[in-house]
Amino acid sequence: MASSIYRRVVLKLSGESMKGSSSFGLDPEALMYLAGQVKEAVAMGVQLAMIVGGGNFWRGGDWESRGMDRATADYAGMLATVMNALALQDALERDGTDTRIQTAMNIQAVAEQYIRRRAIRHLEKGRVVIFAAGTGNPYMTTDTAAALRALEIDGEVILMAKHRVDGVYDSDPNKNPDAKKFDHLGYIDALNRRLEVMDSTALSLCMENKLPILVFDLFKPGALASILAGKAIGTLVADKESIPVS
Predict the structure, then answer these.
(1) Mean pLDDT calculated for residue range 138-160
(2) Of 96, 120, 173, 202, which cross-links 179 as Cys (Cβ 3.0–4.6 Å)?
(3) How many CB atoms lie within 10 A of CB 193?
């Protein structure tokens, strides 16, 4: 197996990626597939941290539109990400991958509280670290949490895992067969075009700190390992071609 060209990466997973073909909740087959892809990545020598969303259980924006207080709705969404983190940890450890969960909220019965230096130490020991509960603040998405944690732990790239979309397009490829895929985008282009890479706060944070973002389809078998090996897959969002390819 090839070695990873990266030392440390952050993999961002949406809640939708964990529900598989179901309309809600978790799909055991999807979880075990994700666990297998992560195990293969860890075997390549990369230090891997993960951020999980909670949209398969809860969407704060939907509940706000129904009259719920925005902060309350967002806190409920943070708890949904903890449920996903626990399910993912279980799948990873059943597949033999040593894992730790760190949350931005204090839920000590099931996970560690986020401590930057402890997270880095886990990574250095070869453990996968799953970050849950976003940033711990309402009005902030898990995209922003991914950018923040990646910068805090000195991650080299954010890998934005998508489901059924293999990169960034100028329109929805599932609705428009003529949609154009971008191999490379600058941060400003992505912001100005309002493309669905990540939310604007997270994208601006990456731009200010020159943190590359790679958008790809995680459900294409072997895609994650290929990216770590340096192959050109998906869409790179960065000012320059800063990610080496073979």
Answers:
(1) 97
(2) 173
(3) 13
